[in-house]
């Protein structure tokens, strides 16, 4: 397999999950502005939409859309417990988390990465904070992860998006439960290895 990624982008979630599964895979970075891979290939030939992640499987098929990739990987390796069994109530809860992260939290960072300034930035920060606040009561019972004490693909995605706060100047201090989750997920070996490989964390 090969993961096409941009350092620190939403593709980081897929990178984390691949590490959690202990799979053998290659990575290739993408210049999403130029639509070129590090190897010089036209990225639009891989994903016509031009964004990461894209996961090229061993049979040549290419998967796109982060939430779909995460669930595919979990379902291919059910013993990993990275996702509850399909059709279960717990799986529906996982879908709920993934959908909120993708449609609400992830998208709220768009204006901030696009350089919003002044009132536009203030509005974008306020919206992002409201979306982050959604998760604060979920962790109020002391749970380590969204589904309890078992790390799931939704946790990989949530960690990835929360990690963007450091790049856009948003503090998590008013969300102690969320901040604790971010630290917990960030301390996992699979997460640290992905961050190191993407040049976002110095190797120990």
From TrEMBL:
Coiled coil: none annotated. The keyword Cytoplasm does not apply. GO terms for molecular function: transferase activity. Residues 1-81 form the GST N-terminal domain. Keywords: Transferase. InterPro entries: Glutathione-S-Trfase_C-like (IPR010987), Glutathione-S-Trfase_C_sf (IPR036282), Glutathione_S-Trfase (IPR040079), Glutathione_S-Trfase_N (IPR004045), GST_C (IPR004046), Thioredoxin-like_sf (IPR036249). Gene3D superfamilies: 1.20.1050.10, Glutaredoxin. The keyword Thylakoid does not apply. Residues 87-204 form the GST C-terminal domain. It comes from the Bacteria. This is Glutathione S-transferase. The lineage of its organism: Bacteria, Pseudomonadati, Pseudomonadota, Alphaproteobacteria, Hyphomicrobiales.
């Amino acid at each position: 397999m090969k993961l096409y990624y941009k350092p620190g982008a939403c593709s980081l979630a897929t990178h984390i999950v691949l590490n959690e599964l202990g799979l053998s895979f290659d990575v290739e970075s993408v210049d999403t502005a130029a639509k070129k891979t590090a190897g010089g290939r036209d990225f639009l030939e891989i994903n016509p939409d031009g964004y990461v992640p894209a996961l090229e499987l061993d049979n040549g098929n290419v998967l796109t859309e982060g939430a779909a990739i995460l669930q595919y990987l979990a379902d291919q390796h059910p013993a990993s417990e990275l996702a509850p069994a399909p059709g279960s109530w717990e799986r529906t809860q996982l879908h709920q988390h993934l959908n909120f992260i993708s449609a609400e939290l992830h998208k709220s960072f768009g204006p901030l990465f696009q350089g919003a300034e002044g009132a536009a930035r203030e509005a974008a920060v306020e919206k992002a904070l409201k979306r982050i606040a959604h998760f604060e009561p979920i962790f109020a019972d002391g749970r380590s992860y969204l589904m309890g004490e078992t790390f799931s693909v939704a946790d990989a995605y949530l960690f990835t998006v929360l990690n963007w706060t450091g790049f856009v100047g948003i503090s998590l201090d008013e969300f102690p439960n969320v901040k604790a989750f971010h630290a917990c997920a960030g301390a996992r070996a699979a997460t640290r290895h992905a961050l190191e490989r993407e040049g976002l964390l110095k190797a120990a």
